[in-house]
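Running log. JK asked me to keep both predictions on one page so they can be read side by side. First protein, sequence followed by its tokens:
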Amino acid sequence: MTVLLMTPPMTQLNTPYPATAYLTGFLRSRGYEAVQRDPAIELFLEMMTAPALDIIRQHVEENFESFEDDELPDVIYTFLSEFDRYRLGVEPAIRFLQGKDPSLALRIISRRFLPEGPAFDTIEQMEAVSGDVLKAAFGNLGVQDKAKYLATLFINDLSAVITQGVDPYFEVSRYGERLAAANPSFDNLYDTLMGEPSFSSEILEQLVEQYLEETQPSVVALTVPFPGNMLGALRIAQTCKAINPDLPIVMGGGFVNTELRALKDTRVFEFVDFICLDDGERPFITLLEFFDGQREIDELVRTYFLSEDGNGEPYVHLNDNKELHDIPQADVGTPIYDGLPLGEYLSLCEMLNPMHRIWSDGRWNKLTIAHGCYWRKCSFCDVSLDYIDRYDAAGADLLVDRIEELIEETGQTGFHFVDEAAPPKALFALANRLIERGVVISWWGNIRFEKTFTPERCQLLADSGCIAVSGGLEVASDRLLKLMKKGVSVEQVARVTKAFSDADILVHAYLMYGFPTQTEQETIDALEMVRQMMAQGCFQSAFWHRFAATIHSPIGINPDEYGITLAERPDILFAENDVDFTDPTGTEHEMLGEGLRKALYNYMHGIGFDQPMNFWFERPVARTTMKKDLVSKAVNSVIASS
């Protein structure tokens, strides 16, 4: 029995999404023949070639033939008018971003080799405020990084050409996301799949045919980590069924685990045969035992399949089988990357910010320190779901063993720990083991800004190879942090993030606005807190998220406790996650959100710290009530105590 595991388009371009590597390692440790492919990166690379651009131009010209030049979208106009330069530059730019042709950097930074479309406007906008931003960011010797940034803008322009001119479902890190995300109906996805294939889906079909020919699988398994992977997954399944209708297709992944927990639409099973929920190891190995005749179908674990009721009518059945427990973290094995094109991924530089670029730059081996979240109390989080609720840690020595195995296999010493929130005690134990065993790595991951991260312990993590951490400051309001049961205060976050930064560890803060009962005053005060923290060097990067109530969070389950009323939900046949709500506070979050993002974007580039709050918003807003020295006093108390 050969299992073929695939990640559908699109995911990040710099490193493989880890789900298939995790399952490949687990299945091989149990004696199964498992192979994996990444059609996400291979689809993108197939579209970024000179011959593909010829086809893209034909589509663009057909789709815009009735437009005058001044009516064309900017990115389309530039693409058509500069096509020869795009065609000449695309393959060299891809090779450069793959690290295969570093000498090209000097041509790229000349600003005369690659055509510059609307994505490059951001440079002019920043230069209008603060002068030569490229010189400030890269100096005279940062040739490779400067070229990487410019080549990334070039790729962004080409991606926009495909989205706006050829295939509306294509995006670099998402693919048809709006068709799946929190959509109670399967109609849009189904109609798209039944319609004419798009340019990108035709290439995807060719890749899948090639994979099936190469591997001759007995089972195909697809991971769907995000809503934007669902269309690609179903396209792959559709292609597999067209080639071999009897080939079993299994689906799982983060989107499935979160949004398909009330699945009823039988049409989904025209494409796939089984859908597994939550951690995939136990459900999948039980399915393989079923395929092999070792189990009955009613022994499957957390698995959807099509069944018949007493009248012979098909319906979606979920078999739970709580008698079989999940595989402990100690027994899931080491991820294996064999079969993934590790030399083909692109290192991108999407923003002139040292922390923000880590997500898209470099090849990172992925590992989990502990399954689930050790805190699991935050009211906005999906704490009722298994991937957060079930906490299970692996020991430090076992983790270091796995780290050494991955270095041996991949030749890479960069690690991204993908925990919901890495437990501090486990991190300190891991750091000590890495140092004691002389294992040299660079690592980063997500944490909670716990007070246990003292300056001394932050330095320990840095000595073990920690280069960056991310964590939630959220609403930057003590009242709201208490309401959301975050377990931290604003001043505590300031002290902890400063301790990390002082240890030369980059820090990214997740921020949130629009939380239930959040007022305009609290939002403006939150921005002032962020301004002070970034000015003091507490963190280098951040991102504002608009709060969304989800059905699996305490807020979605008990909205009355948070002063909101959930909107009436439609009959759910397909996906369900975000739910609309009414907040009687009446704050104008949409307007505030634009200003928050604008201010933060400038702060991340070291610009605008002296601007008044009103500068960032379309209309006058409340004056901040925060003391101007609140953060400086908090972080200076750390320095004094240490």
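And the second, directly underneath as requested:
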Amino acid sequence: MNKFGYRQWIIAAIMVSVCVVYIIRLFIYQVVDDTYKVMADNNSQHIEIQYPARGLIYDRNGKLLVDNQASYDLMIVPRQVREFDTLELLSTFELTKEELVERMQACKKYSSYKPSILVSQIPGDKYATFQEKLYRYPGFYIQTRTSRKYHVTHSGDVFGYTSEVTAEQIEKDPYYSPGDYIGASGLERTYEKWLRGKKGKKIVLVDNKSRVQGSFHDGEYDEEAVVGKDLHTTLDIDLQDYAVRLMRNKKGGIVAIEPSTGEILAKVSSPGYDPQLMVGLERGKNYRALQADSLTPLFDRTTMAQYPPGSIFKTIQALIGLQNGVITTATTVPCHGGAPITGGRFMKCHWHDSPVTFEASIENSCNPYYVHVFQKILEDSKFGNVRDAYGEWRKQVAQFGLGDRLCPDFINESAGFIPTQEYYDKVLKTKRWYASYIISLAIGQGELLITPLQMANIATILANRGYYVTPHIVRPTGDSTQAPIVRHDLPIKREYFEDVIKGMERVITQGTGKMARADSIPMAGKTGTVQNPHGDDHSVFIAFAPVENPKIALIVYVENGVWGSRYAAPIAGLLIEKYLKGKISDKKKPLEKQMFESDLVHSKA
């Protein structure tokens, strides 16, 4: 055989082999395995995404706080859309013509062949009305899913809300597709992967008018959705409800913690918002209204607001002063409506007995006393200069959980601000400091900023006589990615805490916190009046009860409340009585009514 004939046979053999391969593959695809055929039949079927119900959220006593309700999405496959009644669609879903055009263009931009959500979270009544007309809308179909249902009309700062995913979020996590919803704030955001579950899919047959005719291949290619996992919070919803009522028409925050466990019993940012506003067809309009509200209800004042702590900070100064040995419980300081302090200034104070003893300094919140304590700390002879002494003082302050984020359950938490040495070097333009330069820190003013959550943690440390457990609002889920809950011990002697607590008891029995008193509940507290250059001073109060074996520690921070004794202390006392006794005594009903009805928001307008 010549070379030419040999080559012919080789070419023929190759061609026959290729044909055999194609025949075998076609046989497999069309007879043995029709998966690819199934995926190709877009004219007779479409894939419905099966959205899982999000996990439920409960309070500490098993009360259901957040669950789900049926809602519907109007889907379109742009390639299949034909002429339809535009006016009817606009009227049914309360859209403008511009909004409809914009949405349809976005769907087409995503894909002309794949389904996209045109209108999401349609309530049942509108779905029922439109379903009867759907046959007149080629390329349109309804997809079932669930949306959130909140069983309280407050605490949006705690639960947060879900919103439609952005392009950036889709790029970061391929699990999401356009039209999906994702936790946007609060627990919905922090625990998104825990709550969301896993999407499934269902392939359905449709006729030429997009009406569903049944399941394809009896559901052989369907995938079941996996329901999201539940969250069990540490909230006492009855206490939370009560705290919300007390803070109505006031700006500020309340955080209450169970000292022995670090479990957050109540967390109220006021003014707040109803998370149900973020569900349904009106959610976009509602969000814009909340954003434009001058009272900033979307701003979480318990974890994001950074306030000067005021006089409640004197408890920390007292503990550090005792631990460092610069004062003892026998230390006294003269004060006659104030006293001269370092730098040639006069530190004002309200009138009380003089000289001031240690316990009386806490009872009467004496400013000169704590200027004296802070100055002694900064000028301690074991340090070479004020700057170095301040650096050590700052480390001791940080051990109280200040200057850092505390609660792993809230991604939006601020760290607060405990100025560093480098910060003051820059501000003072020198490294040779004098105590007088930063003396306002002595009374919790100046550049010192902490959050209400951190203030509540101070109350917890005092209640526990020297330790705190990581504050948290969600009980352990068993998920390895959840941040650990651990105990933090402070290197301060227990006896010094007992000394400070004796003064805090006097605050309640005979001092500035008398308005917090409750019959038969031994309580320890500390008032604070925080200077505010933009209006009336802020009213602050920390407390815990009972004094022995405490069950609750809390902070009440009321913006523009003038004095700690005017609003913060009474509200704190009512909350403690409500939690420990389950009701408010008749004796305190008038005070309760006064707190319910007081309005520090509209009266300032």
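Observation for JK regarding the second prediction: The chain has 20 helices and 19 strands.
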